[in-house]
Amino acid sequence: MKGILCIKKNKLKDSTIIVLDIQDYNETSTYSEEDTLNIPFAYLKRFYLEIPEGKIHVIAEDKLELNLGLRFLKKKGFTINSYELTKYPCIDNQKKRLVDYGV
Questions:
Q1: Distance of alpha carbon 31 from alpha carbon 93, whole angstroms
Q2: Could you tell me which residues are beta bridge partners of residue 85?
Q3: 80 - beta bridge partners?
């Protein structure tokens, strides 16, 4: 999973990227919009078939939730384009943060 970029959702250049929010339902309502697919991590195992094919931008609350979610999605064959953490926002001025931990 190394090399996945931290990008803010509003900075995505490709409009075909699927935005998947894996936060709990009580967290997603404060962060997500209409164009976001909300499937909390706890429900991914049951509802991952509802995720359309294509590149995915994952929104998670913290690194643990992100790592578990990315690991599960990769095992199911999804292509992860980028991610965003709500507790630790991406910083535009610095080099883009990469996922370099986990699996």
A1: 22
A2: 60
A3: 56
